[in-house]
Design goal:
0% strand, protein transport, transport
């Protein structure tokens, strides 16, 4: 499959954008999912203060 130069540039831009979005959103997504799930039984309650301490 042969791509034109314009298609290669657009594909490269999409890949770079995807990498950047993943890079900056991975940790906040993991934290959000952890807060949403909540603490396991017998463990202290999860709060932002516990995260920073």
């Amino acid at each position: 499959m042969v791509l034109s130069d314009g298609a290669k540039q657009r594909l490269s831009l999409v890949i770079e954008l995807t990498k950047t979005v993943f890079h900056y959103s991975f940790i906040p997504t993991v934290l959000y999912l952890g807060f949403r799930k909540g603490a396991d039984p017998g463990m202290p309650e999860i709060s932002l203060a516990n995260l920073l301490w």
